[in-house]
Amino acid sequence: MLLNMRYGEPLDSILLKAKRAKSHILDLETAYKAFMANDPRPYTVAFETEPNTGDRLYSLSKVEPIPREFS
Questions:
Q1: 28 and 68 in contact (C-beta within 8 Å)?
Q2: HSE of 5, CA atoms in CB hemisphere, 13 A
Q3: Cβ-Cβ contacts under 8 Å for 61 (sequence gap 6 or more)
């Protein structure tokens, strides 16, 4: 396959793939920001204080499903 390519074509292919990857990243970033902007938030953090040590245990008390387009 490489024998049939002219000089510059492999580089063009790499640049095209990099441009498409950047587009995917920007699309994901836009979707993520929209997901996180939901009110109420897509997750809720709760904590409990350990009575003997005073340590705090943090957990997620509510978590919305992650949109399928994130995968």
A1: no
A2: 9
A3: 44, 45, 46
Omega into 10 within 30° of 0, i.e. cis? no
Angle CA(29)–CA(31)–CA(32) in degrees, nearest 5? Answer: 65
pLDDT score recorded for residue 1? 45
Helix or strand (DSSP H, E) at 57: strand 56-63
How many residues are given for the chain? 71
Residue type, 52: N
Q: What percent of the chain has pLDDT over 70?
A: 89
Query: What tokens appear for 35 in the block?
Result: 């997901």
Q: How far apart are CA 24 and CA 18, in angstroms?
A: 10
Joined together, the tokens standing for residue 19 give 């441009």
pLDDT digits (tens, 9 = 90+) for 40-58: 888 899 999 999 999 999 9
